[in-house]
Design a protein that fits this description.
This protein is an alpha+beta fold. The protein contains three helices and six strands, in the order αββββαββα. The protein has a single domain, classed as Aspartate Aminotransferase, domain 1 (Alpha-Beta Complex). The strands form two sheets. The protein has a four-stranded antiparallel beta sheet with strand order 1-2-6-5, covered by helices on one side. Strands 3-4 form a two-stranded antiparallel sheet. The N and C termini lie far apart (60 Å).
Length: 137
């Protein structure tokens, strides 16, 4: 009876898609926050594998975000090692997050069965960590 198992699989797929939408929406909300916008260059990924790219203080005088906007490095001071510092803060708050080795990018790779509550909590921890690092400079 192949039809018997297809509905739970479809519902599971829809749940995963909702979690992905929630994650990207929360991260884009941070990206467009006026106090954080100059420091977050991009939010990208597929499904639940999502990366957030931060501006680097060693970038060229006019760093271009993926959306085409530009920021002047002379008027905005970006925190050093932002990705690593944000990841460290998240770990201290109980959320494991990964960085890339070369770029200022953190990677979200939550489990496929992540609950709505855990996703919301993780996004709040990330937002708080980013704000703390930006405030420290």
């Amino acid at each position: 009876m192949p039809g018997m198992f297809s509905l739970p699989r479809q519902l599971n797929f829809l749940t995963k898609r909702c979690r992905s939408t929630e994650l990207i929406s929360a991260l884009n909300h941070l990206k467009y926050d006026p106090s954080l916008n100059p420091h977050i260059l991009d939010v990208r990924g597929r499904g639940l594998m999502v990366g957030v790219e931060f501006a680097s203080p060693s970038a060229s005088p006019h760093s271009h975000a993926r959306d085409g906007s530009s920021t002047s490095a002379t008027s905005i001071k970006h925190p050093e090692n932002m990705a690593a510092r944000v990841a460290k803060r998240c770990i201290e708050k109980g959320m494991l997050i990964l960085t890339t080795s070369v770029y200022e990018v953190v990677r979200f790779i939550p489990p496929l069965n992540v609950t709505k509550e855990d996703m919301k909590k993780g996004c709040a921890i990330f937002a708080e960590s980013v704000r703390e690092v930006v405030k420290e400079g």
